[in-house]
Amino acid sequence: MDDLKDQSAVSTTATNGVVESEEVRAQEALLGDTDPSLTSADDVAKALNVDPSQGLSEEEAKRRLAKFGPNELASAPPVPKWKKFLAQFQDPLVYLLIAAAIISVIAWFIEKANAQPGAEGGEVLPFDAIVIILILIVNAVLGYMQEAKAEAAVEALAQMTAPQTPVLRGGKVMRINTADVVPGDIIVLAEGDSVSADGRLVNAASLRIAEASLTGESVPVGKKPDTLTEAKALGDRANMIFNGTSVTQGTGRTIVTGTGMNTQVGKIADMLSATEDEKTPLQKEMDYVSKILGIAVCVIAVVVLVALAVLEGFDDVHDVIDSLLLAVSLAVAAVPEGLAAILTVVLALGVQRMAAHNAIVKKLHSVETLGSASVICSDKTGTLTRNEMTVERVVTPSGEVQITGTGYAPEGRMVMTGGISPESEQTQIVADEVVATLVAGTLANDGELREENGRWEIVGDPTEVSLIVAARKVKADRKIKRYTRVGEIPFTSERKRMSIIVKDSTDSDKLTVFAKGAPDVLLSYCTRIRVGGQVRKLTEGDRQSILATVERLSSEAYRTLGEACRPLETSSLADVPGVSVNAAGQVSDIADQAEAIETDLIWNGMVGIIDPPRTEVRDSVTEAHRAGIRTVMITGDHPLTAARIASDLGIIAKGRQDPDRRPARPAAR
After folding, report:
1. Within its chain, how far is the Cα of 213 from the centroid?
2. Phi, then psi, of 377 in degrees rounded to 5
């Protein structure tokens, strides 16, 4: 135990500007050069000395916590308050004022020392120096108090929540503080959970994880524990999970391979900590002004002294002292002692204005930097867009509609497109087909939408929840209550589709299959199409028309999903042709019956889903352009998708692509 305590002592070494701790090196030594994504889960478990079915014991977890440290990102050691206060004096202009104060005091002493006995005049105290010192102290106090208030606000925000993580320890699932997670822990994943460490998947069931915070990809990524055959980029490691991401669907268990600074997020934080602070434009300008003032002060003193010597000469030492005092007085007068305080007050007012807009500024000079920006580069997903998938288009065999409203609040309506009159019979036909399409998409769905404290919250894949939201907007959810799910064939990245089997309480509990998936994939399993309430054979012309619509919507930045159904005309799956049953006459595993169930489907229609731009961004972009600031959107999306979003935000003109567009490479953001 003492050895573990000795090993837990942190020593940092700077190599190429990157700080590495003993804790990080100890974690790296666990797996050595082994890449967990290229190693089986069993071998990873052996390397970490843990049984995936039991997890770590409490004693072993405590030992590892002492050895590897808490699961937290490293922060700089706290700076003592006295150092923070003295840092307010680290400014060239302040140095110049201090020098002026010192010279004033020296001149005052010289004047006093050389005063004639009984002579009147002269200052009782060095008031110039006292005024300068008082101004500097007030300036330092203002700056210190403002920055201390900002730091206190940031610390309060960080302590508002203490996240917890479900782990398997001693064969029991328990919730522990995220900071106590250690390498070798078995994390239990479920929908809605935040991932608190990097890990290698042991098992997964329909697991999908949103990695937008790490890779910038808005669509959740499917995960499975299969060992990779070759090294892949971060976003393509399907058997790994990463700190800072979140589970949108499914369940799973993972072996923690890295915590704290040894995670991918920790490595990003490490790189950020290695960057050096650059002076703001105002600081650079004040450095230049201080330098010029310093030179000017010296020149003034020398010129005055030389001029007096040439014009009047020096008869004795008192003349020399008087001339020096005059030169110094003029030089000190040239120093703007109020400038430092004025700058601090103006910057403090700027900080207060930012606080009124819910922005915390930790350093005063950062406020001025915002006003010096000439180019703003921004990530797209979650920054320029809401990161809330929204169904905007529904295309059926008889027409197309637009669904209004954005976000997860079920507020919106159906708007006919293509010149269809609202009073025509065609409108009702299209509306019925839209409802049927959204019913299929909502039933073949594992997402959940709920209202909590006046806010709409989602559980599961945002894409799936967008279908639920759209169904509620057009009141299609009313038709869903009659159905009860009896089985599911889950979505996988290979299948690119999902199907569920439900029984209809209004039709003698007869079974119906509802499916959704990539339109081109789902279409290959369809042999029929529903048009105007009638089901007919799906022709080759129908297929080409549907695929052309998919291309059109994709070019308009929509992600497309097709919906289909199939009435089974029976209340028992065992009676469906092609379905296998066991010796007891029961269907053992519905998921294995995809070939028999997902066939002869009826095409209902498709939806166009988009991650909508934030409504306030367009005004911000317009204001930035008005101020002469160029805006740049950074994304790995298809150029047509990126151009659509950029034009909606006003970053580029409608119908044009940015001439400065560069091919984007996958990157961790």
Report:
1. 4
2. -105, 130
530 or 217: which carries more pLDDT confidence? 530
Residue 32, token pair as written in the block? 């050595």
212 compared with 154, residue with greater pLDDT:
212
The tokens for 661 are 């567009």
d(C-alpha 277, C-alpha 279), whole Å: 7
Q: Which of 379, 432, 504, 658 is catalytic?
A: 379
Query: What is the DSSP-derived secondary structure letter of residue 477?
Result: G
The length of the chain, given as a count of residues: 669
Give the span between the Cα atoms of 140 and 424, in whole angstroms: 75
* Beta partners for residue 549, in sequence order: none
Coil, strand, or helix at residue 449?
A: strand
Cα 635 from Cα 230, distance rounded (Å): 26
59-83, pLDDT tens digit by residue? 999 999 988 888 887 766 777 888 8
Report the candidate in 427, 428, 405 with the shortest Cα–Cα distance to residue 417: 427
What pLDDT digit, counting tens, does each position of 595-612 carry? 889 999 999 999 999 887
Distance CA(538)–CA(580), nearest Å, equals 28
89: which 2 tokens? Answer: 């004096």
For the question of residue 660 being annotated catalytic, the response is no
pTM for the structure as a whole: 0.56
- Which string of b and e fits 313-335 if b means at least 16 CB within 10 Å? eeeeeeeebebbeebbbebbeeb
Integer Cα distance of 621 and 602 in angstroms: 45
* Both structure tokens of 86: 């003295």
SS3 664: coil
CA distance linking residue 459 with residue 194, whole number of Å: 12
Residues 6+ apart with CB under 8 A from 459: 191, 192, 447, 448, 450, 465
SS3 breakdown of the chain: % helix, strand, coil, rounded to 5?
Answer: 45, 20, 35
3-state class of 457 per DSSP?
A: strand
Buried b (16+ CB within 10 A) or exposed e, 369-380: beeeeeeeebeb
Q: How far apart are the first and last CA of the chain?
A: 39
> What does the block give as tokens for 543?
């297929």
For the stretch 450-492, pLDDT in tens is: 888 888 888 777 888 999 999 999 998 888 989 999 888 888 7
Q: For residues 30 and 44, what is the distance between their CA atoms, to the nearest angstrom?
A: 10
CA distance 200 to 263: 12
